[in-house]
Amino acid sequence: MWGLRRTYNKSSAMSNQNDEEAQPLVAQQQKPIAATPPVQPKLTCGLPSVLVAGLCYCCASGSMVLLNKHALASFGFTAPTALLCFQCLLAATLVKSCELFGLVKLQPLRKDLVMVWFPVNLIFVGMIGTSFYALKEVGVGMVTVWKNLSNVVTAMGDVFIYKRTFSWQVWGCLGLMLVSAVAGASTDARFTWSGYSWQMANCVFTSAYALYLRSVMDKVAEHTTNKQKMDEFSMVYYNNLLSVPPILLMMWYFGEFKGLLEQEALRNSAFLLVSALGGIIGFAISFSSLWYLSQTTATIYSLVGALNKIPVAIVGLLAFAEPTNPKNLTSIVIGLGAGVLFTQVKSK
């Protein structure tokens, strides 16, 4: 019995010792894992930054179209190229001022970089110049629809130049854009061949700018100070500053220098304010687009840009009392809807 009791006590002691050694491990295993605190969204003015950035981008891009339309169509100003020159000078000055205040860093003006970039700049001048002339003669609603046609031209350029392929859904959306643009033009009560010719030229220049920019960005990187692709602010600076000489030639070609200072609109403070705001907001798009892209994805950015055309078209139709009819409105709705759907199917 003593032997059994001794054995029992020994085994009990060992069991108790093992239990005591196991207790910290069990306690460690049973210790609740601290929950990871949810990531708080960044706030700007008490609101989520992504929301504020998106609103700034939408307001800037939409306001620029409406303000330029107001400046070109409401004050009897007959020198759109001169207005374009003023806004380019203003944008270049604002970007340079931001660099002086340390807000951005720009690529310095160097001959080798200018020579590589200048062909891009000529296409840029064609793009913004034709946009101004089209906006002067074509209603905002139809301008927003016809801008979608640049997607058709760009897609064809991707196929023939870069050998890309697209799904049937993408081609279906592009087909809807084409049909809506043709139907809209045929039912436009203010249709003019000159206005729509400018708009078609704008689609070609817009697509050429996008396609050529892809091929030249790597060449540009060889001439930048950091050997990287040119950032957006430097692009804004180069595009607007280098645009001034070609635009001055356009002003001479279209005879806008003659009688420019006698324009009644130049003595209208409202016209001067609208023109300046158009240039400032055009410059602000660079900041708002970069800010919004840093807060969201490229797909959401493209989708919001497409959706933003809808209120711009509606406001344009109402603000400028543009004559329309049910068929024309239907074509606008189809075109804008196809643009939204296009951003969705292309991202898949």
UniProtKB/TrEMBL annotation:
Source domain of life: Eukaryota
Keyword Transmembrane helix included in the entry's annotation: yes
Protein's membrane topology: Multi-pass membrane protein
GO cellular component terms, A-Z: membrane
Region ranges (Disordered): 1-21
Record flagged with keyword Transmembrane helix: yes
InterPro entries hit by this protein: EmrE-like (IPR037185), Sugar_P_trans_dom (IPR004853), TPT_transporter (IPR050186)
Keywords annotated in UniProt: Membrane, Transmembrane, Transmembrane helix
Protein localization: Membrane
Annotated TM spans: 74-95, 115-135, 166-184, 196-214, 235-255, 270-293, 300-321
Domain Sugar phosphate transporter: 60-336
Protein name, per record: GDP-mannose transporter InvB
Protein source organism: Volvox carteri f. nagariensis
